[in-house]
Amino acid sequence: MSDATGSAPEEPRRDESDGLLDTHSPRKIVAWATVGGLAVLLAAGALFPDSLAGTLSDVITSRNTLASALRLSVPIAFAALGGIFAEKSGVINIGLEGLLIISAFTAVYVTDVTGGVWLGFGGGIIASTLLAALFAVVTIRFRADQIIAGLAVWLIALGLAPFASQVIYGGPNTSTVPTIGAISVPVLSEIPFFGALFSASPSVYLLFLAVALSWYVFERTSFGRWIRASGENPKALDTAGVNVAHVRYAAVLLSGVLSGMGGAALSLDLGQFTGNGPTMVNGKGFIAIVAYLFGNYNPIGAFLSTMLFAGLDAIQTALQLQGIGVPRQLIRITPFVIVIVILALVGRTRTPEAAGEYYESGEE
Amino acid sequence: MSVGDRARDVLARLANASATERILISTAALLLSILVGAVLVLVAGRMTACTPNEAVYYFGTGFCYDPILVFDRLFLGALGDPLSGGWSPDGQFSVTLRETTLLIFAGLSVALAFRAGIFNIGTQGQMVVGALATAVAVLWGATLVSGVLGTVVLVPFGILVGAVFGGLYGAIPGFLKAYADANEVITTIMLNFIATGVTLYLVSGVFKDPESAANQTVPLPEYAQFPTVLFGGRQDFSLVALFFGLLAIAGLYYLLEHTAFGYDVRTSGIQPEAAEYSGVDAPRTVVASLTLSGALGGVAGAMYVMMILGTFQTGVPSYGFDGITVSILAGNNPLGVGIAALLFGVLKSGTTVVQFATDVPPQLVGVLRGLIILFVAMPEFFRLVGKRITDTGSRAVATDGGRPEPAAGSSGTSGDDGGESDE
């Protein structure tokens, strides 16, 4: 127990973590390479302000970049947190993308009908949780293959949201609704770069809270221990008198709640749901999966790797506006390429022992 | 790797189920999806506005969409209304066959990977890459040959190009899985996005048709497209392409069941440890299966360009995802893919008829796609329902999931399935 579960919540950048993790793990190399690369780039930018490095470091140190990185990371990080709960309990939820899509649409729809943005936010959470509940019943009660059922969740949402939008709004895009708006902390929001942290959408603060709470749940509560045991050694949990199925239901529903917050924040940030092609969610749910794998199932690690993806995304958006040589369409695919590169480098992640397996209790 | 293990687990479970049971489950899943779809149509009909005259009334409540009309249009409409007389092969029926042809290739692509224990969600991307490569290569070839000779040379050439490029694109996640242990579900989905982005870049730049406002390549000349035989050309269907599809079904069936490579693929799908023990080169099999799977996806792309569109345009319909449904509905059996592709072809072609007749959005088929996958993925549910129906004598069904014993027992009764006999 101590070895296996001890390594899982380790934060990627911390050194001397544990004998199990090789000191030169690809995860750490990537993390340090990112930090080192940033340092070199900023130094070069400071020395040669007119070069490409200068433009890049201008973009990176811009307050707007941090602000948009935070905004972009909200849906991904929420979904990643949800994914951690589900997968740690032994249910791989590959349908996060679908949960984001359904909540993004419902949030806008409910806001439109009720006129209340926060009611819409709640509506998004409920929709996502219901879909997660369907997924939970199908995988836990009816033993469906988790990957296939997760794909089904994605495809159902991918069909259902544009279908509903077409029925209600006459097109794949909804009409626009009021947005959540930003909350500015006086004084603190005046700080040059980091001021962006204190002048953000409430969903960003909600995310900080969710990251901290998730960390607390896993590290300090018995529910967190149950979830871990349910994924690592369900038999032991069962023997200890805790119902494995109940723990898994709770974890999957939590993944629905968290993803719902992410999806609702995504669409209410824009005030519209766009449902063409891959919809406005556009792969964020899958990036979330890679984010928590890269973050080693640790809420803080997942948040940091989400910030890495979102930061890159924010930088590419800023670069598009700056008009450097690379074509727009190619810059746009960088996050997806990065995901593949990271996945190739990190390679084998230590998934929870019993993840993906149906657990059948002896009794009942 | 866990995902692979799970695929194998599914396969093993499917292998336990007899062919009859599998067909029953697929049929039940299809019917259940349609039932849920009907409810959805009713609900959607409540959410949209219409005049009282247009509405239909069930249980004393008015609905704007009539599910019975919807499914009448969906199925009979897709077959070209065979009951109402005046049936012509040139109507909607040829659209159905056209969709079926593409779905055969997309379905085979997914099925082959699945049999090797790999989830290839990237058929869509492989198809897009194959489609653009075919359009560009055939356009170049069309400057060299023309006329009947042009068709005879260019069509096979286009298919080959589509297969090669789709195959190369499929090889990428293959290598990543085999040598870097990167989860293929994620990599293939990411590669779908990348394929869309890169082809958009290319087709809005170097390969763009200067005459057109859309992001598309220069249209292929008539002789560089699939010839129409028997069916009129109005619906862009070619019997030749369908013939290629049937050939591919037979070919893949033979490859999987009667060759050494097929044996390697199947054993690595069901029992990877046993496969490696008996000398199967696992990484090589992974790369080969995904390459071949990608090649089939690429051929679907080639068909799309040379039969349907006559050019490459951004926004390729999601045949790749439909292929997942087709393959899962078919139990990943090549012969089953043929039937499942026809069924799903009816659904796809029918939704456009439905849209004309009833205003129900065509996205309905997207929902059905997901529902079918969901229901096929839970055979336990149908077993439970089945037990409830058959076990009238004994106590009511217990609340536990029902152990898989009944399935294993029933597999003894019919061993007629060609596929899974060896473990």
Describe the structure concisely.
The complex is a heterodimer of chains A (364) and B (423). Chain A has 364 residues and is mostly helical.
Shape verdict of chain A: globular
- Beta-strand portion of chain A reads under 5%
Radius of gyration of chain B, rounded?
Answer: 23 Å
Domain module count of chain A: 1
What general form of chain B does the structure show?
globular
Architecture (CATH level 2) name of chain A: Orthogonal Bundle
The radius of gyration of chain A is: 21 Å
CATH topology-level fold name of the domain at 87-367 in chain B: ABC transporter involved in vitamin B12 uptake, BtuC
Helical stretch tally of chain A? 15
Q: Please write the string of helix (H) and strand (E) elements of chain B.
A: HHEEHHHHHHHHHHHHHH
Q: Report the structural category of chain B.
A: mainly alpha
Q: Give the CATH topology of chain A.
A: ABC transporter involved in vitamin B12 uptake, BtuC
- Biggest beta sheet summary of chain B: 2 strands, antiparallel
Number of strands of chain B: 2
For the biggest β-sheet of chain A, the strand order reads: 1-2
Q: Helices and strands of chain A, in N-to-C order?
A: HHHHHHHEEHHHHHHHH
Estimated share of beta-strand residues of chain B: under 5%
Give the assembly state of these chains: heterodimer
